[in-house]
Specification:
The complex is a heterodimer of chains A (about 260) and B (about 425).
Chain A lengths: L5 H10 L5 E7 L5 H13 L4 E5 L10 H12 L4 H14 L4 E4 L2 H7 L1 H11 L3 E3 L9 H9 L3 E2 L1 E3 L5 H9 L5 E4 L13 H13 L4 E4 L5 H7 L5 E4 L1 H10 L1 H11 L2
Parallel strand pairs in A: 1-2, 1-9, 2-3, 3-4, 4-5, 6-7, 7-8, 8-9
Helix pairs in contact in A: 2-12, 5-6, 8-9, 11-12
Chain B lengths: L4 E2 L2 E2 L8 H16 L1 H15 L5 E3 L1 H5 L5 E6 L9 H15 L3 E6 L3 H13 L2 E7 H6 L1 H9 L3 E5 L6 H15 L3 E3 L10 H24 L5 E5 L4 H7 L9 E9 L17 E5 L2 E5 L24 H8 L3 E7 H15 L5 H13 L8 E6 L7 H8 L2 H21 L1
Parallel strand pairs in B: 4-14, 5-6, 5-8, 6-7, 9-10, 9-14, 10-13
Antiparallel strand pairs in B: 1-2, 3-4, 11-12
Helix pairs in contact in B: 2-4, 4-5, 4-9, 5-7, 9-10, 12-13
The chains are: A alpha/beta (about 260), B alpha/beta (about 425).
């Protein structure tokens, strides 16, 4: 049973006006915080509904080459967690969409788990996505996050067995992040019946809204997800475009995604 | 304590996509461990293929030079492919067969684990892909040459720093897409559960043999056992023979690199500069900055140049069972020269850390002390690095001559 959360409420309210929401992803400090600000603006102005802000980590084991490279480049450029959190404070105040922090367990651990969660909630962050901590290890963190008024976003994957999907779904807050294919971020996903079947398995396992990511790159992909999921997540494709053609091109890309 | 933990360390911090794979691997490993015939099959294979048991050699000259304190060398260098790594990869290979998988992948830095995995795949008839940073491919051509001869596909990884870390990421990417038919052969006693425990189990053959051999040769247990520690698999291997005997002191020697003052070392525990973190699937002591980002590490021995340490060893340190020391690059080269000259044994640069640790302490040990040094691998692979470190002019001239011959051949072809 999913819990009532501010994030789930926002998602439902937005779905009254549009058939699918778009969630984007940026890596803080890549290529720079200034460039991040520019691209966030372009994304919000062109219809992005939610955004993941990734705090870079030196060992991003769940990320594909594009995002892994961006993590390393940001760190090589001198990114520091403290400055990143200050930046998040600023963008949360400036842009009126829900922001989530995506990062890895060690970043929280080095900062102090509880301190990180309290501060993130104080910044106005609506949720946390931490892909390298399994449900079994996250019990205390989920409770602390809820207490701070922030959602702990769970991941469901095609390799998760049905009973595990139910276990994950029972703990779901805000929305569930469904990984569309076996693999890491950034590769190509064939949006076909197998993805549809997987989304149906997730739907049965939870009442929370479903966000589908990994390999969403085109208006056709988004069109496929309409009516099946509540949120389409676009990460690496926008990052590639940002590096090649700049923030404005990213804005146009998102504008065209909903078809 | 939940499964996969050793004191405060260990666990399985993996993306959800790998959950099922790890669950299955854990179940298969536990079933194999409970099946006595599996261990018999393993011992049989190691006996017939890898030359086990490896000898426990009395180092007569080193001993005499130290007032008859007795130094014994456990000869893991005599294994197939020249290192203790054979124990782990052959064990995992048998497990792969038992699981019904047909392909193995591995990542390798200096190339030794890659060579060992390719060897195992050739022997057991498995398809094999090895990920290796493009820079390491360029630096370690002899190892790449052998991996390819044994039928493995070596993929140079061109992302990031083009070294081991990027090879790990690439292997992980392969695995999440191929887990049904593929097993990821981890090379050391690190990573997510069950790898630390499983790798230590296969390596425990070293310690069981060493204990029986020293009892036979000396009629008593040793006073001190030295092993080098990168990830920690050879140390875990030999220590397991003596863990229950509190009177045997166990010493892990880490890479002191250019010294413990700056960051050019890989002495996670001996430096006192590491902190507990979670990365690469498990919780242990890591050399990291205040933000939790892993630091650059350095060692003359590529195999010890690692940012974390086995969670089992982290726990053995916290409980006081294992003492950790560090040997610098300079001390290691000196120890290597001494071992070569006095015993005619060429240790790997990694193993030379254990030798350096023991040589430093030998003069201060009690007079009838019995010492075992685990010689994890042989040094042939390090000939380029060692010749560089020794500044051997004849070797350099030889390489230049070979290069000139190849350049001339290339000129004729063009």
């Amino acid at each position: 049973m999913s819990r009532p959360s501010a994030l789930a409420g926002t998602i439902k309210a937005k779905l009254d006006k549009q058939d699918i929401l778009l969630m984007s992803h940026i890596v803080l400090g890549y290529p720079s915080l200034e460039a991040n600000r520019e691209v966030i603006k372009a994304m919000v102005e062109n219809g992005v509904d939610l955004m993941e802000l990734q705090i870079p980590f030196s060992e991003p084991i769940a990320d594909g080459p594009t995002i892994a490279r961006a993590n390393q480049a940001s760190l090589d450029g001198g990114f520091k967690v403290k400055e990143g959190l200050q930046f998040i404070r600023e963008v949360v105040a400036e842009f009126k969409i829900p922001f989530l922090i995506m990062t890895y367990t060690n970043i929280l651990m080095a900062y102090g788990m509880e301190k990180f969660i309290t501060e993130a909630a104080d910044l106005g962050v609506k949720g946390l996505i931490i892909p390298d901590i399994p449900l079994e290890e996250a019990t205390d963190l989920i409770a602390q996050s809820r207490q701070a008024g922030m959602d702990w976003v769970q991941l469901m994957t095609p390799t998760s067995q049905d009973e595990r999907l139910v276990k994950i779904g029972a703990e779901a807050d805000g929305f569930v992040y469904c990984v569309a294919r076996r693999g890491v971020t950034g590769g190509k996903t064939a949006f076909d019946d197998s993805v549809g079947t997987f989304i149906k398995r997730c739907r049965v396992a939870t009442h929370a809204p479903l966000a589908v990511g990994f390999g969403v790159r085109s208006p056709e992909d988004v069109a496929y997800l309409k009516g099946k999921a509540e949120i389409a997540v676009v990460g690496s494709a926008a990052l590639d475009l940002h590096v090649k053609e700049g923030a404005e091109a990213v804005g146009q890309f998102f504008k065209g995604l909903r078809g | 304590m939940s499964k996969g933990y050793f004191g405060a360390f260990g666990g399985a911090f993996i993306p959800e996509i790998l959950h099922q794979t790890f669950s299955q691997l854990t179940a298969d490993y536990e079933a194999a461990r409970a099946d006595a015939s599996f261990w018999q099959e393993y011992l049989e294979l190691m006996r017939n293929y890898s030359g086990r048991p490896t000898p426990l050699t009395y180092a007569e000259n080193l001993s005499k030079a130290h007032g008859n304190r007795k130094v014994y060398i456990k000869r893991e260098d005599l294994n197939q492919t020249g290192a203790h790594k054979a124990n782990n990869v052959m064990g995992q290979g048998l497990l792969v067969r038992r699981m019904g998988k047909t392909r193995v992948i591995a990542e390798t830095g200096a190339g030794q684990h890659g060579v060992a995995t390719a060897t195992m795949a050739a022997r057991l008839g498995l398809e094999c892909t090895i990920y290796m940073g493009a820079k390491d491919v360029a630096r370690q051509r002899p190892n790449v040459f052998w991996m390819e001869q044994m039928g493995a596909t070596v993929i140079p990884v061109t992302s990031g720093s083009q070294t081991l870390k990027d090879a790990v990421n690439e292997a992980m990417r392969d695995w999440v897409g191929s887990m049904d038919e593929t097993h990821y052969v981890l090379g050391t006693a690190c990573g997510a559960h069950p790898f630390p425990e499983m790798v230590s189990w296969f390596q425990s053959v070293i310690g069981h043999e060493a204990k029986a051999q020293i009892l036979e040769q000396e009629g008593r247990l040793p006073d001190h056992v030295y092993a080098c520690v990168g990830g920690g698999s050879n140390a875990m291997g030999i220590f397991q023979g003596f863990l229950d005997h509190k009177e045997v002191e166990l010493i892990g020697v880490e890479a002191g690199g250019l010294g413990l003052d700056g960051h050019n070392h890989a002495a996670r525990i001996a430096s006192g500069k590491s902190t507990v973190g979670i990365a690469q699937g498990y919780k242990t002591y890591f050399l990291q900055d205040g933000d939790g980002q892993m630091r650059h590490t350095h060692s003359v021995a590529a195999g010890l140049d690692y940012v974390g340490v086995s969670p089992i060893l982290a726990d053995l340190h916290d409980s006081g069972r294992v003492r950790f020391e560090a040997a610098t690059d300079v001390e290691v080269i000196e120890a290597l020269k001494r071992m070569v000259k006095s015993e005619g044994i060429i240790p790997a640069l990694e193993s030379s850390h254990a030798v350096a640790g023991a040589l430093k302490e030998l003069p201060n040990l009690k007079e009838d002390a019995v010492v075992i040094i685990n010689l994890s691998g042989r040094g042939d692979k390090d000939i380029f690095t060692i010749a560089d470190a020794l500044g051997d002019a004849k070797w350099k001239a030889y390489i230049q001559e070979r290069a000139a011959i190849y350049a001339a051949e290339k000129g004729e072809e063009a």
